[in-house]
TrEMBL record:
Transmembrane segments: none annotated. The keyword Protein biosynthesis applies. The keyword Protein biosynthesis applies. Pfam families: IF3_C (PF00707), IF3_N (PF05198). Its main location: cytoplasm. Keywords: Initiation factor, Protein biosynthesis. GO terms for molecular function: ribosome binding; translation initiation factor activity. This is Translation initiation factor IF-3.
Length: 141
């Protein structure tokens, strides 16, 4: 029907004429209570936001001359983060002359991953970014 007829019907029913698909040929309209429609849409959006889970990225920083016990402490912290569902970014920071021995320090990240192998997998492999070498771990599914 024409838009004028539809508008008259909507006014008689004391409702609103809302274009559902304005780009369609011909445009699709609905006769509804617009206030109620907006309220329902906002409730749906709110419900969708409640069901979403935000994934945080937790960072664990280490230096190349980290000792075994300190590494184990960092591994335990990473386990806790992974079990909570967060991603873990493991960063190895190089300062001063430590930059000369970057390749020898890569084994620290490998050891870290080896200790978390049962619950974590690599999302982003170790990569040098400026003075930092970092990798991102996520929980195994």
């Amino acid at each position: 029907m024409s838009s004028k007829e539809a508008f008259k019907l909507a006014q008689e029913a004391d409702l609103d004429l809302v274009k559902v698909a304005p780009t369609a040929k011909p445009p699709v309209c609905k006769i509804i209570d617009y206030g109620k429609y907006r309220y329902e849409m906002s409730r749906r959006e709110k419900e969708a936001r409640k069901k979403q889970k935000t994934v945080e990225v937790k960072e664990i920083r280490m230096s190349p001359n980290i000792e075994e016990n300190d590494l184990n402490t960092k591994v335990n912290a990473a386990k806790k983060f992974l079990k909570k569902g967060d991603k873990v970014k493991v960063t190895l920071r190089f300062r001063g002359r430590e930059m000369a021995h970057v390749q020898q320090s890569k084994h620290i990240l490998d050891d870290f991953l080896e200790k978390l192998e049962d619950i974590a997998q690599v999302e982003k492999p170790p990569k040098m970014e400026g003075r930092n070498m970092s990798m991102v771990l996520v929980e195994k599914k």
